[in-house]
């Protein structure tokens, strides 16, 4: 198949599906290998980025999606109802970070790290589509395992989990100092209340 026809076919498939489509499925449609599909998609990404188009192609793990560029959100709001924005509180972000970096992870593992009950946070993140059940741990009670979703990748603008920033020792130490300071402030407030 020639490259122009492949590009047009990929664009039609992505537009019609509306959601991400596995590279493997696109390769099957084109009757080509996945390497060819990735080359064509890379060419399309460059072409869309250079032009004054309102769309872009993003790669999410082993899937491809056609989506609106963020710059055009205000224009879409004028014609469509405003999509509900999910607010991520500090507790939700903390829980999401633990799941993202430690996945697959159980609720109990999250609670051990956070030091508090995390049922609400996990339920809310599942509701937002940022995490999902990915299996069960082979242990007594067979607890659920959680991992991130494609929506997580889309929301945070990363291609895959491997693209998440790495935590270095300096950053971890900074977080530890901040946490200790927050605990001390809370202890001081408790003493004042007594």
Describe, in plain words, how this protein is organized in 3D:
With 194 residues, this protein is an alpha+beta fold. It has nine helices and five strands; from the N terminus they run αβααββααααββαα. The strands form two sheets. Strands 1-3-2 form a three-stranded antiparallel β-sheet. The radius of gyration is 21 Å and the shape is elongated.
What descriptive keywords fit this protein?
single chain, 194 residues, alpha+beta, three-stranded antiparallel beta sheet, two-stranded antiparallel sheet, 56% helix, 13% strand
Compact summary:
The chain is an alpha+beta fold and 194 residues long. The protein is built from 9 helices and 5 strands; from the N terminus they run αβααββααααββαα.
Helix-strand pattern: HEHHEEHHHHEEHH
The proportion of residues forming helix, as a percent range, comes to: 55-70%
Number of helices: 9
Head-to-tail CA distance between termini: 77 Å
**What do the pLDDT scores average to?**
86
Name the poorly predicted regions.
none
Outline, from the CA principal axes?
elongated
Coarse structural class: alpha+beta
User: Tally of extended strands?
Assistant: 5
Q: Determine the strand fraction and express it as a percent band.
A: 5-15%
Task: Output the radius of gyration.
Answer: 21 Å
The biggest sheet, with number of strands, parallel, antiparallel or mixed sense and barrel status, is:
3 strands, antiparallel
Order of the strands making up the biggest sheet: 1-3-2
